[in-house]
Design a protein that fits this description.
alpha+beta; 5-stranded mixed sheet; globular; two-stranded antiparallel ribbon; single chain; 182 residues
């Protein structure tokens, strides 16, 4: 039997492999201090996020090894409608250049179309030229160049400060009441 790659939906048995690959991705992206734990992945893989894994089977006698993954969340935008936000895509460096990333992207697009989503979005570090080249081959467009939009974020300490700050509406002369069921 020839070596074989396959793509399937991620499940709880993949958590340790995804955590291992996520750590490798974080090191590559120069953000290794912020890696999710296997417990975090297990909790979110079934409730908030969805995933695919890329498996490699060297021979008929061997068990498949998870060598790549992607995970995503479903989103809605009042302008473009429903879309998928791909949070990460990673293929182990020993398995790149063999079509695994393309296979993961193919299935991501297929999931979008089958579920009636209008698009697929993701972020790429500006210094990651190999990724940008890979994505340009599938006709991905740079959101900033096509929409003149900059991604903003609030994380960790800044998020806590924002949540603790009591908002006021000075022009209306009052305070903002808490929404129900937050």
């Amino acid at each position: 039997m020839e070596t074989a790659y396959s793509v399937r939906l991620a499940c709880l048995r993949d958590v340790d492999d995804i955590a291992r690959l996520a750590k490798a991705l974080a090191v590559f992206e120069r953000r290794s201090e912020n890696t999710a734990t296997a417990a975090d992945i297990a909790e979110n893989l079934t409730s908030l996020a969805h995933g695919l894994v890329l498996e490699y089977k060297a021979s008929h006698d061997e068990s498949p090894e998870v060598v790549g993954y992607t995970h995503w969340t479903y989103n809605y935008d009042t302008v473009v409608g429903r879309y998928v936000n791909m949070n990460e895509l990673y293929v182990d460096s020993n398995h790149r250049g063999r079509g695994g990333g393309s296979a993961l992207m193919h299935y991501m697009a297929k999931i979008c179309r089958e579920k009636g989503f209008n698009g697929l979005r993701w972020l790429v570090f500006d210094w990651n030229e190999p990724a940008k080249k890979f994505y340009s081959k599938i006709n991905a467009k740079n959101w900033y160049e096509t929409h003149n939009v900059v991604t903003m974020h609030v994380y960790e300490q800044d998020l806590m400060k924002l949540a603790e700050r009591k908002p006021t509406i000075e022009q209306l002369g009052g305070n903002v009441s808490e929404p129900d069921d937050v």
